[in-house]
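This section describes the prediction task in plain terms. A model, or a person checking by hand, is given the sequence of a single protein chain and must write out its three-dimensional structure as a string of tokens. No templates, partner chains or ligands are provided. The sample shown here is typical of the held-out split.
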Amino acid sequence: MNKTIRNFKSNYNLHQRLTIDEMIIPCEARMSIIQYISNKNHDRGIKIFALADAESGYIYDIIPYKGKENGGGVEEEGLGARMVNKLCQGLEGNFHILATDRFFSSPNLCEVLLSKKIYSIGTVRSNRINFPKSLVNSTKDRGEFNWEMKENGISAGTLIYITNFYL
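The expected answer:
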């Protein structure tokens, strides 16, 4: 696997826009690293975290999930942030734009990535640590956007979107 990842990296030049997500490689074998994720098309297999070029879809780096780590790492960082930091090693200073979903995104991670000169954008859970409390309970009309920017350049916003259901 290490040789494959080295080939991924040595044979491709990344565009500016990148994305990180988790995926399942379907596998029915009896191995300790087999995971079950109910909301995936193939819900049983080997879980991997992948960094991909958002323009071409080229997989640039992968990390297989081997189970819960014991020690070695900042506990409050979380699995998503650890995977983003590992997958972004070597990309510092290139001003890539990294898109993530709410599993990986957090205000703290955005600050860390910005300090490494990597821009990030993504959805975030409003109950994350350091998410602006003024945005959590803002009451706005449908379609209105509310945002706030910190002194370090990190901004957060909420969009009120309510759908109408017709029976």
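For orientation: The chain has two domains: 2-122, 131-167.
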